[in-house]
Amino acid sequence: MARKGVENSEIRASLITAARQLIQTEGFHAVTARRLSEQVGLKRQIVHYYFGTLDDLFIAVLREDGEIVTARMIKALETEQPLKLVWEQAYNASAAGLEMMALALHRKGIRDEIKRIADDYRDLQIAALTDYLDRHKLSPSTPPAVSALMMASVAQGLALEKALGMSKGHEETIAHIEALLKNFENSGRSF
After folding, report:
1. How confident is the model at residue 1, as a pLDDT?
2. d(CA 72, CA 61)
3. Using the 8-state DSSP alphabet, how is residue 137 labeled?
4. Fewer CB under 10 Å: which end of the chain, C or N?
């Protein structure tokens, strides 16, 4: 990952933060060595000192974000309402995440990293659902893996539409899914 720069240095961390902010506000196309160096107040070469390529920097952003999301999911596993938290976390996908997915369509290294993170995250979602079912002695007709995928798919669709400025049907869909989750938590009936 890091070429020469220290893996846990403040400069490296500030480059990751600056890249994340640019991705969130302007998209991945805005992330250049020049823009990053301007944001952190250093020479342009510093970007390549810490990251061999911009793809290496994007992967560092993905890994850091993945660690944050994974930590949140692990906390969700410890709550009494993991299903609601699985849904909320999926729904709160950001435009930056969508930007990285778009970039992944054209960059194998980024695609591989997103797949790795997403597979790990899906495992955590399934674990949260399975654990909940086991603790409450429930056996719905919809397997946990299917439920996790359905929640993630709807959430990603809503996040994409939200990023595009669309909102028609969103409130109703969110309310419906939350009602299904609540009903499931109360009765164990599939959603």
Report:
1. 45
2. 17
3. T
4. N
Query: Could you tell me if 99 and 23 are in contact, meaning their C-beta atoms sit under 8 angstroms apart?
Result: yes
Q: What three-state secondary structure class fits 148?
A: helix
Confidence of residue 111 (pLDDT cuts 50, 70, 90): very high
Name the pTM for this structure.
0.81
| Angstrom distance (rounded) from CA 110 to CA 27 | 15
Whether 95 contacts 24, CB under 8 Å? yes
3-state secondary structure 49-117: HHECCHHHHHHHHHHHHHHHHHHHHHHHHCCCCHHHHHHHHHHCCCHHHHHHHHHHCCCHHHHHHHHHH
Residue-wise pLDDT for 13-30, tens only, equals 999 999 999 998 898 999
Residue 74: Cβ within 10 Å count? 12
C-alpha distances (whole Å) from 144 to each of 105, 122, 190 are: 28, 10, 10
The residue whose two tokens read 């974000």 is: 65
Separation of alpha carbons 77 and 95, rounded Å: 26
Tell me how far apart the alpha carbons of residues 127 and 188 are, in angstroms, rounded to a whole number: 17
pLDDT band at 95 (very low <50, low <70, confident <90, very high): low
Tokens describing residue 165: 């400025």
